[in-house]
Every structure is written in C-alpha cells, then in structure tokens.
C-alpha cells in the first residue's frame, strides 16, 4: 500500500473521506489483508466513540422503525464468485451530485434529439426521433425525481461510472463519463446484480442508458467482445444500489 | 440475554421479533450518535430510522469475521449521519453550529443501564491519553461529520498532519480500549 493511501486509513475509519478517496482506500484494502485488518480495527475503535453519546430516543421511533421494517425487503448475502467483485465499488449516494450531474446529462439528451431530427433522410426519422425523445424524457424524469441520488465510481480503465437513481421510479440512469472509446470489436455492456447473479441489461453503445432496477442490488459496466457476453469478463465499474 | 451478535444472526434470517429485541439494545446508541452528529432532533430521528432499517435490510451482509454487531451497526449509523450532514439540505445550518462547538468529546447523560458504565469510563480514560490534536481531529471528524480537509482547515494545520493524527490517534485509542474488531 502506498504511503499516501495508507495514512488515509484513520480518516477512512472516521468517515472523513469524500467518495473518490474512499474508493481509492477500499480498492487498496481489497488487495492488502494487513491494511484491511487495520482498517477494520480502527473502524471498530471509531464505533466505540458512539459510547459517549447514547441518548434515549423518542418513544414513537420504535413503532416507526418496526412499521418500516415490516414493509422492507432484506437484501440477500453478498456473493463473491463473480470477477465483478474486483471492480471499484461505491455505495455512498449523494443528493447534491444528482442535481449537479443532471444538467450535464440533460445537455447530452438534447444534443441526441437534435441529431436524430436532423437525420431526415432516414424514412422513419420521425419515429426514431420520437423514440429518442421518449427515452430522453424518461431519463429527464429520473434525473428530476425528488428522490434522485447519484454515485460515481472511478472506472478501471479511466473515466468514471455515474449512476443516478430514483427509488420511487424504480429506475437508474447510468452514464459513462470520460471513459475510453472501445475498438470496433469490443462493446460496453451493462449488468444488474439480481440475487447475487450478474444479469445482462444489454449493450451500452451510447454514453447514457436507462435501466429498471427491480430487485437488483448492484449495477455494473463491463467491456466485452462486440455483441456482448453471457457473464461479465472485464468489469470496469460497479455501483452498489443497496 | 441475547447479545447483539446473536440477535443479528436471527435478523439476517428475517426474524422480526429478534429485530425488535435488537432495537431495544442498540436504539439509544444509534439515536444518540445521530443526535450528536446532526444536532437537530428531527433529522436525528430520521437518520436513526434510516440506519435501523439498514440494519434490517443489510443484516445478511453482516460478516462477523470483520466486525462485531455493535461496531457494524454504529458504522452504518455514522455513515448515514455523515451522508446527511454532507447533503445539501442540512449543510448550511450545520456549518454554523459546527463552528460554534468543536474539539471537545461530549459525554451525554444517559440511562446507564442501556450502556455499560465501565465502557464509558474506559473510553473517557483512554481519550485522555491522546494528544490534544489527535483528540480534536478525531472529534471533529466523528462527531462533527467533517472531512479531513475540513478538519485541517478548522484546526488550521496541514492536511498531512491531520491524516496522520487521525490514524495514530485511533491506533492509540484502539490499543488502550483493547479493540480487536
């Protein structure tokens, strides 16, 4: 572990890192068992600081929590077989980034629509434009949802994977930000982790895609041979939806 | 009485009764931490609820080889609280409050039966073994929800110093408290 990342272990245990530093530290911990042990011990030490601040909660909290629990589905245990586990993971979601990135993605959406409309020589240009428009509108709806939250993860081969999701709409907008273009014989493919298995959500030729979350717990992007693969072979990024 | 670790194992299998008993054991710590970090009782209640529902939702992902149940639950709670602190809606109000009371490790008066008196005394004693800079850095991050660059700016010390003090402070605390995981 490099010195720089190693000294961040204390700040990591105290939750004093932003998402990017946290992802950097977690990637290192995944490769360094002794660092991982230190991080676990320091995190447990930090948790003891909560001993100083216990307080009696309002009586109604118990009922509220039990009601919420009775209608909340439990996530299945994490499985570790898929190579996807080695891709960087981010699980801290931000509302403020959602708003900031929404503008950028919307700008992309508008450009795509303009482009489609200009392709008048295609016989079904109007139908295509309508489809693009509908898709753009759905993306915009997710980005504008009051509960929209965003997470980014640095991608293995450069750039970032950005996911904005709305639990209420049960959908997520996935965006490739600054990732390298693939050679013609390769393609980006999206995946959803459903009950511990990576299920293809289709190829991702455009930089932005919309996926329905359903019971998925993670969304991942991989680089595959053109045409896609049955299981991810080269994951570049993964975002935990939990 | 079942320990939080015993109960969490049952919760992972969907046992709502076990969750209720776990709630009774951990809710004061969960709510108290949220309250300490957020200050605002209404927000603390929301965050405590989110964290406790997380405990239910993620119970099957708890790995006893990596942490004790209590430590895992407090870590979840702290993340939730810190996420709330850093989200835009509560940011401005909090910055003013954090600026007001900083550095010292606050001890609340609570029902001693919900939390071992010995544990609290031990924590207090061990915190006294830290240097002032170690203690302030850790307190601003943990109770204030600040990132380490914000801690550095607040204390007017170099970034590298804060990183190091957080780590060596926690190591000293770990050894004094004899924390394993």
From TrEMBL, chain A:
Ranges in coiled-coil conformation: none
Domain (Anti-sigma K factor RskA C-terminal) ranges: 98-236
Superkingdom, natural source: Bacteria
Membrane topology classification: Single-pass membrane protein
GO cellular component terms listed in the entry, alphabetical order: plasma membrane
The entry's keywords: Cell membrane, Membrane, Transcription, Transcription regulation, Transmembrane, Transmembrane helix
Domain Putative zinc-finger: 3-35
Principal subcellular localisation of the protein: membrane
GO MF term list: sigma factor antagonist activity
UniProt subcellular location: Cell membrane; Membrane
PANTHER family per record: ANTI-SIGMA-K FACTOR RSKA
Protein name: Regulator of SigK
Organism: Phytomonospora endophytica
From TrEMBL, chain B:
Residues in RNA polymerase sigma factor 70 region 4 type domain copies: 120-173
Keyword hit for Translocase: no
Gene3D superfamilies assigned: 1.10.1740.10, Winged helix-like DNA-binding domain superfamily/Winged helix DNA-binding domain (1.10.10.10)
Residue ranges occupied by any RNA polymerase sigma-70 region domain in the UniProt entry: 22-89
Gene Ontology BP, a term: DNA-templated transcription initiation
Pfam families, A to Z: Sigma70_r2, Sigma70_r4_2
One MF annotation (Gene Ontology) recorded for this entry: DNA binding
Keywords in alphabetical order: Sigma factor, Transcription, Transcription regulation
InterPro entries hit by this protein: RNA_pol_sigma-70-like, RNA_pol_sigma-70_dom, RNA_pol_sigma70_r2, RNA_pol_sigma70_r4_t2, RNA_pol_sigma_r2, RNA_pol_sigma_r3/r4-like, WH-like_DNA-bd_sf
Family matches, as PANTHER family: ECF RNA POLYMERASE SIGMA FACTOR SIGK, RNA POLYMERASE ECF-TYPE SIGMA FACTO
Family assignment from sequence similarity: Belongs to the sigma-70 factor family. ECF subfamily.
Protein name, as recorded: RNA polymerase sigma-70 factor (ECF subfamily)
Organism: Phytomonospora endophytica
């Amino acid at each position: 572990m490099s010195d720089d990342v190693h000294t961040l272990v204390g700040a990591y245990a105290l939750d004093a890192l932003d998402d990017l530093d946290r992802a950097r530290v977690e990637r290192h911990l995944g490769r360094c068992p002794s660092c991982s042990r230190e991080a676990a011990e320091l995190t447990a030490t930090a948790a003891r600081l909560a001993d100083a601040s216990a307080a009696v909660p309002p009586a109604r909290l118990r009922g509220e929590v039990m009601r919420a629990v009775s209608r909340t589905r439990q996530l299945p245990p994490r499985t570790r077989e898929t190579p996807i586990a080695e891709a960087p993971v981010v699980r801290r979601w931000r509302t403020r980034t959602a708003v900031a990135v929404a503008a950028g993605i919307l700008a992309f959406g508008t450009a795509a629509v303009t482009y489609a409309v200009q392709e008048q020589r295609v016989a079904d240009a109007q139908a295509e434009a309508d489809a693009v428009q509908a898709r753009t509108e759905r993306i915009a709806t997710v980005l504008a949802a009051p509960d929209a939250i965003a997470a980014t993860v640095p991608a293995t081969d450069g750039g970032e994977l950005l996911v904005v999701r709305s639990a209420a709409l049960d959908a997520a907008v996935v965006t490739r930000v600054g990732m390298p273009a693939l050679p013609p014989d390769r393609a980006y493919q999206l995946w959803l982790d459903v009950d511990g298995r990576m299920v293809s959500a289709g190829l991702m030729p455009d930089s932005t895609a919309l996926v329905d979350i359903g019971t998925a717990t993670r969304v991942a992007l991989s680089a595959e041979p053109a045409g896609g693969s049955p299981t991810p072979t080269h994951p570049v990024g993964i975002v935990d939806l939990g | 009485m079942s320990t939080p670790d015993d109960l969490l194992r049952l919760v992972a299998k969907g046992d709502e009764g076990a969750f209720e008993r776990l709630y009774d054991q951990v809710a004061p710590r969960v709510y108290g931490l949220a309250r300490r970090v957020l200050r605002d009782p209404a927000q603390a209640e929301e965050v405590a609820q989110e964290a406790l529902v997380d405990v239910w939702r993620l119970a099957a992902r708890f790995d006893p080889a990596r942490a004790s149940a209590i430590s895992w639950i407090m870590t979840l709670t702290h993340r939730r609280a810190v996420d709330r602190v850093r989200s835009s809606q509560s940011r401005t109000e909090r910055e003013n409050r954090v600026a007001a009371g900083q550095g010292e490790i606050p001890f609340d008066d609570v029902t001693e039966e919900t939390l071992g008196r010995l544990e609290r005394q031990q924590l207090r004693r061990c915190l006294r073994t830290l240097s002032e800079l170690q203690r302030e850095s850790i307190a601003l991050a943990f109770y204030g929800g600040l990132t380490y660059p914000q801690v550095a700016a607040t204390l007017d010390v170099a970034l590298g110093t804060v990183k190091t003090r957080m780590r060596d402070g926690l190591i000293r605390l770990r050894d004094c408290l004899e924390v394993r995981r």
